């Protein structure tokens, strides 16, 4: 949990997106640096949160990444999940247009709880090891609507660009606060 004394260098980032886009796998890549199969393990309901330290401008910054705990399946993410969050990773699967189009629903779900004026969204097209079925133009348009330039392609399966994109988000958050 966030401590008021160090609030200027701690950031809470929540994972959002449809079931199956790879949020828990992505979280586990950040935590363990390896692919973990969520299908046949207790991980399938999602895990809790992790702390990751990043050095930004020679200062140590703490990022807390929160997985959903599986509540997104029933649209039951609690206000507590969003509380004090600074940013959200809006995750879709690059090979499933529907999960991209559905991001608006997750934005609205966050908007009910967070202060949208200072909240940061980052788009993450996960499963980049599979064919891209979403047009670049649609992704650019979505970024414009959200007022963000943070848009990444990652593979939580191979690990490609997962840690890099996460750390870029943390850099951005720290440099704009
Ligand atoms: P969540 O419901 O969003 O938490 O999704 P999971 O992390 O449980 O992943 C759902 C399924 O997608 C699992 O079978 C994962 O192994 C698979 N998956 C996750 N990330 C990737 C990826 O980058 N590439 C591929 N090909 N499969 C992935
Ligand atoms: Mg999950």
Automatic annotation (TrEMBL):
GO terms for molecular function: GTP binding; GTPase activity. Keywords: GTP-binding, Nucleotide-binding. This is GTP-binding protein YPTC1. The chain holds residues 13 to 189 of 219 of the full protein.
């Amino acid at each position: 949990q966030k401590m008021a004394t160090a609030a200027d260098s701690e950031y809470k980032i929540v994972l959002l997106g449809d079931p199956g886009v790879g949020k828990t796998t992505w979280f586990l890549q950040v935590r363990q640096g390896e692919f973990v199969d969520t299908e046949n393990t207790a991980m399938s309901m999602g895990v809790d949160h992790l702390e990751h330290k990043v050095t930004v401008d020679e200062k140590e910054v703490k990022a807390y990444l929160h997985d959903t705990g599986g509540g997104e399946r029933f649209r039951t993410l609690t206000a507590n999940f969003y509380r004090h969050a600074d940013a959200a990773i809006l995750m879709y699967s690059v090979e499933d247009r529907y999960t991209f189009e559905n991001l608006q629903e997750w934005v609205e779900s966050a908007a009910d709880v967070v202060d949208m004026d200072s909240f940061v969204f980052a788009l993450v097209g996960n499963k980049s090891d599979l064919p891209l079925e979403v047009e670049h133009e649609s992704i650019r348009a979505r970024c414009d609507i959200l007022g963000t330039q943070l848009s990444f392609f990652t593979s939580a399966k191979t690990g490609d660009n997962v840690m890099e994109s996460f750390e870029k988000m943390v850099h951005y958050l720290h440099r704009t606060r």
